[in-house]
Amino acid sequence: MLTQTQTDPGQSAPLIAIASVIVSMALIAIGNGLMFAFIPVRLGADGFDPTWAGLIVTGLSAGGLAGCILTGPLVRRVGHARAFMVLSALIALSNVAIGAGPMPLLWIAARALYGFAICGLFIVAQSWLNDALPNAIRGRVMAVFYVAYIAGLGVGYATLAAIDIQTAAAPLIGIAFTALSILPVGMTRLAQPPAPQAASVALGQAWRISPVGVVGMLAVGGLSMIISGFAPIHATAKGYSQAEVALLLSAMPVGTLILQIPLGWLSDRTDRRYVLAGTA
Prior knowledge:
By secondary structure, this protein is an all-alpha fold. The protein has helices spanning 15-45, 50-78, 80-99, 104-132, 135-159, 169-187, 203-209, 211-237, 242-251, 254-267, 272-279, and strands at residues 2-3, 198-199. Helix 1 (15-45) packs antiparallel against helix 4, helix 1 (15-45) runs antiparallel to helix 6 (169-187) and helix 5 runs antiparallel to helix 9.
């Protein structure tokens, strides 16, 4: 949890500046979606047991937990923009390791590094936007943020059908989009939030502030990891083709694209707990 002073709601950041963070995360998502689809398909094509793909997802989750713990101190040390760039560089390095070829132990470490970086990026991006946005439009803008990210994942998933998985094309595409994602944040005029007064995983404090929010995020995180992480593993193990796995994964974000913005609009007009309970 990053505890910091909130921006005066009367001094809203320009939308073009806010968009820089959203565009950056959408660009990262394209490479991320491709890598989610590529790894189990490549391991399956090379005859590795599906257990390896499952261990890679587990490593990703472990790295994500470390990211939740360590991103706060990183932001406190270097600020939001530099932290964003550092974490993006770690994703690029993770993709470099994947591009070295199917070595399951290396890939587990690489995806753990990716998990660390992507969780950190979400913390940085969301806290940055949260500081910049007045409460009256926060729900809608955050909905656009998630729609952009999910759309990027969908594009990345679909890209799998068009590449040769026996080459390093997928990791190279992931690296390219990660590099591109640094540009909007590097050039943004969006004011950085002040350094957080505290940087810790304060679950107790989060529970006291919003127990519904804590439970909701634990549920969403667990379900999302099960579906997005294991659906391509299961489909590959069942013998579905590369194109079929890509189609399955690219179809999954459709519900988010349809419902996220209306739900964000609704959350700005009623108790957000009702919206969360209704969607559940």
